[in-house]
Amino acid sequence: MKYSLSILTIAVIVLFPHAGLIPFFGYSIPILLLTWFVLKRSNETFSDIGFSFVRFEPKALLVGVLCAGAIVAFMQLAFNPLLDSIVDLEYDDSGLNETIRGGKLQFLLMVAMGWLIGGVYEEIVFHGFIFTRLEKMIGGKYATQISFVITSLLFGLYHAQLGSFGVINALVIGMGYLGLFLFFKRNLWYAIVCHGAYNTIIMTLIYLGYL
């Protein structure tokens, strides 16, 4: 099957981190290596899926941070209150809030992971790799639109440990990240900065007791 390796890699990206076989985000290393291997077999590199140090633009810092602030405001002041008023959904922070509030060192460590794992790793494997693989597999006039929806759903389900409320939040927020990637000519730096900045804002609000 032509795309069997891509399908297997997508499954590994979504499922393997939840197996708990490698502690403390260590799963990111073998998955990035697998992603690199699959790209290499297709004569591609990470730059072909939007990630390249050469493509970094200072403007991405400003746009990413501003968009992160806008997403936080939208989710906390509009979307989540509306969702709460419509349906009672389960939310499980999986101990993250307690860890973030565990002290300044733990807070800073979690912020760093929010950038490295959330910002860099997740954007590369989801909105870079998975999205572009789906586009190639689906093909046709609506490949981008269909891939957008499927990638967003997978990104939401990837956060299943946060409960149904967390899944829906991740789905909606992930659409914002992917939208930035596409709007800025498939440059992942905009999504990376937005994702990292969003995590930083949310973790800071949790640390300070506002969430």
UniProtKB/TrEMBL annotation:
An example Gene Ontology molecular-function term: metallopeptidase activity
Transmembrane segments: 6-39, 60-79, 107-130, 142-160, 166-184, 189-210
Domain of life: Bacteria
CAAX prenyl protease 2/Lysostaphin resistance protein A-like domain span: 106-201
Keyword Ribonucleoprotein: no
Pfam families in the cross-refs: Rce1-like (PF02517)
UniProt record, GO biological process: CAAX-box protein maturation; proteolysis
This protein's UniProt keywords: Hydrolase, Membrane, Metalloprotease, Protease, Transmembrane, Transmembrane helix
InterPro entries in alphabetical order: Rce1/LyrA-like_dom (IPR003675)
UniProt protein name: CPBP family intramembrane metalloprotease
Organism for this UniProt entry: Phaeocystidibacter luteus
